[in-house]
Write a structure and sequence with these properties.
Number of helices: 12
Helix content: over 70%
Distance between the termini: 69 Å
Number of strands: 0
Strand content: under 5%
Number of domains: 2
């Protein structure tokens, strides 16, 4: 049997790929605010490299400003907090929407993806892995409510958020494939399951962040309950959709609440 990469090694590879993609988002964004139709030269390439580095520096400063001043902070307040003029911000960002996209990409790259990768190790069982990954994601978002509102919920950041979600789904697909292959299971549905789990968790967290109707620990519990139940159901048929559709697991009968009452009634 050929050697397969461990889940931790696969996670590290996914992070490297994700970093390239998130940087690609930034580069695509930069290309929209530079002149087109000109051949690249050394001076322009140096300017683009400087611009990317400066954007990252200003984005990190923006994140600090949002944490301190709130999600509704304006460009004037951001510039003052960083210690630059608003003109400098507009030199590197076309508008606040552009800054919001850069912040969403930076949040994912700097705060979320490294935590997810660290959580994926060879040392834990599947349930612990499931609960840990969900907890890491939920806690990372819960810890940064202002950044979440500023960078991850607005329409302009939708593309960056969608790309980030795809990357997490790819990471989860890799882990599912590795773990299921070890069980000689059918992995044909791995991408479907990963995208469904990641998308469902993302939507639930979006809902929860609006007014946090339940404690964060309860949210993690409920999301783990849903996700782990799905994984157990998939494992029960070894990943086979044919086996599942031919004999779907029955819904358990509810507890008989009248049993104890009947016993009590019989005593005189």
């Amino acid at each position: 049997m050929a050697n397969r990469p461990s889940p931790a090694a696969a996670a590290r590879a996914a992070v490297a790929a994700a970093t390239n993609v998130t940087r690609g988002i930034e580069q695509a964004l930069l290309s929209t605010v530079t002149e087109s139709g000109t051949k690249p030269d050394g001076r322009r390439q140096r300017w683009e490299k400087h611009k990317a580095a400066r954007r990252t520096e200003l984005t990190d400063g923006t994140m600090d400003a949002v944490r301190s001043l709130g999600a509704d902070v304006g460009m004037d307040e951001i510039a003052a907090h960083i210690g630059v003029s608003k003109t400098v911000l507009y030199r590197y960002f076309t508008d606040k929407n552009d800054l919001g996209i850069a912040t969403a990409v930076r949040f994912f790259e700097k705060h979320l993806l490294p935590r997810l990768t660290e959580a994926i190790t060879d040392e834990v069982d599947e349930y612990t892995l499931t609960r840990t990954v969900i907890g890491v994601y939920v806690q990372a978002v819960a810890d940064e409510p202002n950044l979440y509102k500023f960078a991850l919920t607005g329409q302009p950041a939708a593309a960056a958020t969608a790309d980030s979600e795809k990357l997490v789904a790819q990471l989860m697909t890799g882990v599912l494939v590795l773990r299921m292959t070890e069980r000689d299971a059918d992995i044909s549905g791995a991408e479907v399951w990963s995208n469904a789990l990641v998308g469902g968790i993302q939507r639930a967290v979006d809902w929860w962040m609006t007014d946090r109707p339940i404690p964060v620990a309860a949210l993690i519990d409920y999301l783990t309950m849903m996700s782990w139940s799905s994984i157990v159901g998939i494992a029960a048929v070894n990943g086979s959709r044919e086996a599942f559709t031919a004999d779907p697991p029955p819904l358990p009968e509810p507890p008989d609440a009248g049993e104890d009452a009947g016993d009590d009634h019989g005593e005189a």
